[in-house]
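User: Hi! Is it possible to get a structure for several chains at once, not just one? Here's what I have:
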Amino acid sequence: MSEADPMRLNGRAIPGEPAPGQCLRTYLRENGAFGVKKGCDAGDCGACTVHVDGAPVHSCLYPAARAAGREVTTIEGLSGADGALAPMQQRFLDAQGFQCGFCTAGMIMTAAALDDEQMADLPRALKGNLCRCTGYRAVGDAICGIRHVEPAPAGDTVGRAVGAPAGPAVVTGSARYTLDIDVPGLLHMAVARSPHAHARIVSVDDSAALAVPGVRLVLTHLDAPKRHFSTARHEDWRDDPQDTLILDDVMRFVGQRAAAVVADSQGAAEAGARALAIEYAVLPAVIDPELAMVPGAPVIHPKDPATRISDPDRNIAAQVHGHLGDIEAGFAEATVIHEARYRAQRLQHAALETHCAIGWMDDGVLTVRSSTQTPFLTRRGLSEALGIPVERVRVLCERVGGGFGGKQEMLTEDLVALAVLRLGEPVKLELTREEQFVATTTRHPMVIDVRMGARADGTLSAMQLTVLSNTGAYGNHAGGVLFHGCGESIGVYRCANKKVDGHAVYTNTVPAGAFRGYGLSQVIFAVESAMDELARGLGLDPIEFRLRNVVRPGDPMVSTTDELDDVVYGSYGLDQCLNAVRTALGNRAADTAEAPDGWLVGAGTALAMIDTVPPNGHRGEARVSLAADGRFLLEIGTAEFGNGTTTVHAQLASTALGAAVGDIRIAQSDTTLVGHDTGAYGSTGTVVAGAATLQAATALRGTVEAAAAKLYGGPARLVEGVVLCDDRRIELSRLYADAAEAGIALSETGSNDGTPRSISFNVHGFRVAVDPATGEIRILRSVQAADAGRVMNPLQLRGQVEGGIAQAIGAALYEEVRLDDAGSVITRTFRGYHVPTFADIPPTDVFFAETHDSVGPLGAKSMSEAPFNPVPAALANAVRDATGVRFTRLPLARDAVWRGLAAAGVPDSQDRSLTPQDSTGEATQ
Amino acid sequence: MIPPQFDYVRATSVEHALELLAEHGDDAKLLAGGHSLLPMMKIRLANPAVLIDIARIPDLSYVRDEGGTLAIGALTKHAMVASDPLVALNAPLLAHSAAQVGDPQIRNRGTIGGSLVHGDPAADLPMAVVALGVTLVVVGPSGRREVPVEDFFEGYFQTAVGEDELLVEIRVPSRPGVGWGYQKFVRRANDWAIVGVAAVGAGADAQVALGNMGNKALRASATEAALAAGASIADAAALADEGTEPQADMHADAEFRRHLVKVLTRRALESAAS
Ligand SMILES: Cc1cc2nc3c(=O)[nH]c(=O)nc-3n(C[C@H](O)[C@H](O)[C@H](O)COP(=O)(O)OP(=O)(O)OC[C@H]3O[C@@H](n4cnc5c(N)ncnc54)[C@H](O)[C@@H]3O)c2cc1C
Ligand code: FES
Ligand code: FES
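Assistant: Yes, the chains can be modeled jointly so their relative placement is included. Here is the combined structure:
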């Protein structure tokens, strides 16, 4: 950029020139504007939105050189010089229009530039900004200036709409995500990936790559330890087959790491990776899971049983079998039987922040800063995969830009660590959006054969599931997802005869992994569709039919085994949820959209139950201490990726300590903070980590009061940030100082092992209209009732529920990771893989059951994965009601719906006698 | 992804841009909004060594009423085409289709000229200009020529604009008050059309263009001929897929596209007639 014509960034002239070919986005970040984010690097997501001369643009598509002489404003420049928030920033704070906050800077920049006409039409105005977390209701409220945050008196914060502690940092762009740090001398990594679904690497010629200026290191399978691990992160490592190497000489899917290149710049690393000459010997591949178990199919993991692969020769990673009662007798008793094959597709989490990690050596300790849900388990994974003692590894993360299960996986850290150990210098790996699609984990696609029977009196007599889960090239989460999917989905129904046979099979496709719902969303789609069909067969209202068959407190909750486990009825609000949805759907006046003429209208519902904690233990650890300034420090192991648990932790601690939320400082997700913490998965943020926090804070209250009594005499009480001893008020900062002098420690730890566990519920209802001519589905009404126990924070809980619903609507209607016949992912961008935009998500009425859990902290239950689970089935049931056609395959894409209706001879699905309608929902004239 | 390195030069006038094109030959690409070119470069479908920035050439961004014809400068941004009162009055279909392009950020940068020269058969503006029967003004080393829209689009990402030429103006026949219909079938908001239909006028005068039904924006000739012969909208729309060669891709197969185009043509014609 010429001296005479510099770019101005937030009011200050930027000296120097961008590199040739550099985009404005990276140039701004190099100049310290870390609030400018990347979600796609292709103009599809809006996370990089900045203003150029006042107009919002995607900075990833703007050549930096072009900004010469222009005024560029980023989120950092939106607030006043005195730090005062701009009006739009304040609105996002007041409405809490964010969760992980990764999209927020871009959202605010777009919103801040809207004129009145655009404000009146937000669905169109926000087309260019994706949010994966919120479901957009909170974003819309923020932009419209609706205030939701309420004041919370000290010590009385639980149950209130308290804002997230990180809120001010999020709306000003100062929240630091994984890559938002300046690391001097940082090296960059790029990965060369397999073009073959199944192949052996014969040789890697790295001479051309090493000749690229700036390239420092090439890593191949010869450089990697031969220590097998699983990318899945679980408290108990035995949950997953140990079938993965950091770099393997066998490629088992298109997109698998073949080699890595480290260089001084990202451009050089990518050029180096392109310059590698890798020779492959192609092996026969199996793409279709139904063929993978057939004798003679290529064996994907010819490994020994020590790897814990269930049946390597048949490509079976894991299996589950269970039979309760007598299934055939159950069918013999049935008046109605429904039998069908259901298919749930492969989905991407599509968290807006891609997987990334930065590693460096810190005084002999391998330190990895990563976008992970599980810092402690990732530390253990690194230690195992690299063969170094756990004490010499530290893993930390700051804010994580969305996870949804995809970051309960070690997908970048191991490779970064290997390079750091080799070079002794800091190394970064940031996956591109394309890599995110081709090489990170997905939801397990499943084929589910359901056979269910019911008696004339409306009770279930038999439930049978035969499940084929496609785990892809690696077995991470194969077993857990399969077991869990076949668990609560049928455990919620009282039925004496149940039979389950499930297999998770390897194929030469991108590996599946943990995904919101952990198997339940797939199986519930099948079971709840079948429940609907049985109700129809019996002529019963589907909600009435469910009410007759759901378990009630005291009933055993069984699915594949009747052995006792640690799940209890800590509380029960399923009946409340079903009734709330029935009432809401009955009120047609509350519909949020109208059915166009000629469209077919119907309603449908589905329910879901989920255990509040995963089985086999889940550990949370927290330490709460009084700090010198009289505030409290909460140190906690678990991570925050937008699920709002940090807020709940602050509320729990402040309530126990009689403090204001703002007086709880939080340090989290760093393996140096506490002994061990399983991490943020399985919806455990509130019920496990929160319980540990509450325990620590409650203990600290006792310790503080005892110390005060000892130091100052008389009974002591901690209230509203001071200690009252008789009628004396002792400031906590003074207590801290006096206690320190007297050698009294004012710090307590708490822990929780995630047992016993309770259950929570979600019931969803839709009314839809279906255009028989095009297969378009329009949602006229969406309602969800959730039983989350005592509501810790109504604002955040609603946000979690809405976000889950939005993600599930995408899954129900169009999201799908598609592969070609050779097993290669073809949906590699947001242009191909559709994530719902603001315009695509209807409002949902959210109801909370009034329950108080005996297991969770202060009566709370978990609610972060579950809202997703009933949604696809409820939608399919509504479409069935509207059209008479049962769709058994997700997504209910328009072409599939049209084809299904045409095949069933539904009038108007043929070409003639159509009614004119605008097909996009946008004005036609 | 890091796009390939490129040099960046800024053209100060149309003549300067032509000189730069002549100087750098095949290695150079014109950069207008960059919202098609940069994505192509990032995935290495385009590898220019030199980018010639034409965005700041004065006097290529305008909408003028030239009596019976609307003249639109090639660098006019989508946002401006969408909101300009002259366009709304004389070619409301064009205003509407420009408002359907991507999102506000894209409409603030993307230009009508860039969109047309990019030649994506699924894009909004190509089908609109085909329905409107525009003329395109192109300048090159041998001077200025006018290309009727029928000769402009040549195939996937191929137009009549040569490597050494510049599109400077789009000339749209003014038709205030004429009926029109626009149907963009998408799976999700903010997408390119799976199938699109733009229609102007009614009965024997109707002009219908189809998006994403072949390798370029097409006229629905069989439908137009049937209408000219007095057929009903329903009968004419049923012929909309004649002569088209829709692709199968991850969004829809050819059969669904053939079905959709009939439904959408009928709907577009119904609104044009009402
Ligand atoms: C996320 C995203 C969503 C989008 N959604 C849509 C959509 O829904 N509908 C739609 O129609 N489009 C969509 N687009 C494309 C958008 O409309 C582009 O802005 C437009 O197609 C290209 O215009 P541009 O000015 O950016 O051209 P550029 O990218 O600058 O140029 C495109 C091509 O045209 C050439 N060129 C540009 N101007 C001239 C000229 N005057 N003379 C000769 N050659 C020239 C360039 O050399 C280049 O080859 C989308 C783009 C993105 C990134
Ligand atoms: S990063 Fe620029 S739009 Fe996604
Ligand atoms: S809050 Fe929008 S992507 Fe996470």
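The CA atoms of residues 155 and 215 of chain B lie 5 Å apart. Residues 63-173 of chain B form a domain with the Uridine Diphospho-n-acetylenolpyruvylglucosamine Reductase; domain 3 fold (CATH 3.30.465.10).

User: Great, thank you!
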